[in-house]
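anyone seen this seq b4? input:
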Amino acid sequence: MKTAITEMFGIQHPIIQGGMHWVGFAEMAAAVSNAGGLGIITGLTQGTPEKLANEIARCRDMTDKPFGVNLTFLPSLTPPDYPGLVKTIIDGGVKVVETAGRNPQQVLPALKDAGIKVIHKCTSVRHSLKAQEIGCDAVSVDGFECGGHPGEDDVPNFILLPRAADELEIPFVSSGGMADGRSLIASLAMGAEGMNMGTRFIATKEAPVHENVKQAIVAASELDTRLVMRPLRNTERVMTNDAVEDLLRIEKEKGSDLKFEDIIEQVAGVYPRIMSEGDMDAGAWSCGMVAGLVYDIPTCQELIDRIMKQAEDILARMNAMQAA
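predicted toks r here
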């Protein structure tokens, strides 16, 4: 299947594995890329230019296909070495960067001069238009269903994607709620040129996370995520657990007086304990409502092959309907 996204990134299938904290290691990115999609290494999980350079080299040993690096720009008192990370990406010969969080304008000149394509993750049409204006090559339009940070507008993809198609000139992919061939065909029908999957890729054999995490996603329904940090206007969709329910209780009790320090125990520094050690009640971890559509733990190759087969079957059925 050829789309503007497969052509832009030099990939076989219009499927991207989004950057995920403590998930987007070389093993994950290489498995997705080898299966014909675009795998993404999560830059801030590595943290330093030296560690990122090592992870890029590891990924090169595992695949000869295109892969990218995610750079998320977060407010911080001690920000990461973003210039160093950008230099590492360039020196490593990476050709795609997924940016997220705050405006990536500061790094675009260096990336563009190096011939790197930039896809920016956006949760609204207005942010997507801004990404287009500053020179991003594509955007990943992230609906309210997504795991992680859905923004504060609460617009689901059945509205957000057609709105993006009405406004944007650059290509975009759908993100949030994507799991299978139905997701892909629906996204294409609404104007996207492909789809980005996060949660669905965690529940694969190659995902370098604890088995408990994968089983939690398979066991979950679409009702098992929660929205936390809404009072702080830093909303995050996470999988429910004891720590998350405790966090929501604190938010309710504190009301308008809530400060980040009140919930730091439930949200800060918990990813290694969850993703590596499998402590499923350690704290809040990003997970999309799409967990309700995850029923098994295939290899990335099996998953992507299945998605494309289902997409082809849907197209054939729709063509038959038109011909009838």
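The first strand starts at residue 15 and ends at 17. The chain has a mean pLDDT of 97. kinda curious what u guys think
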